Fold:
Amino acid sequence: MQVWNALSGWMDYRRALQGPGFEQKTIGFVPTMGALHRGHAALVERCRRENGIVVASIFVNPTQFNDPSDLARYPRTLDRDLLLLEKLGADHVLAPSARDLYPRGYAFRMECDDSYKIMEGASRPGFLQGVMTVVLKLLNIVRPHRAYFGEKDFQQLKVVREMAQDLFLPTEILACPTVREESGLAESSRNALLSAGDRKKAASLFRLLSAAATPSEARAALEAEGFAVDYVEEHWGRRFAAASLGRIRLIDNIPFAGQD
Structure:
């Protein structure tokens, strides 16, 4: 496995992948912010099965954080992440600096219209803008045939897929099911920040989201369990929730037949 910290070196190498001997090899890509868990592992494993070359990225993207303290406490476990990616069979890992990925700062950025600014788009100003911008940059840098995203971040997945289609990008955006702990808690890098007590309580998010008859019932049940609820909403055939335990914000979603 080769780790690329300098994007210039990777881009020189990527051009060579267009040469003789690579015509039949598809490139799969798994973008991450590190602090890897079983959910990321499932993405990489599928990418490995379906492609000749596997590329992953580890980059904590500052432009999608509207709270500086949230960015500061986001877990960073680069050495452990690289060991896991090598074990999973990744061929290349991009781990650039913010200066390398944003050479002119945040001078150019992607924007979506107001119809996307619900849930995470409403609660976290600039979040979708930052996600679309960094994903577009990474897709242009890697130029993969396929890119893999988890359904836990379903709104992000949907926006990225529609952006890629709207901008005629050649990459196929593929969805992978949410991976859960035995308790039902969705795997997330933020789980590592939970206390032992809050981690046990966090499993209630999936259970109550699934059991409630309505979004308002789910909100009331979550608040009764001690969650600070940001939203519970239904869109695109799914029920979504964002709620916090202390300073740690968790999101989840489930399929729900009651909505188109």
Notes: The radius of gyration is 19 Å.
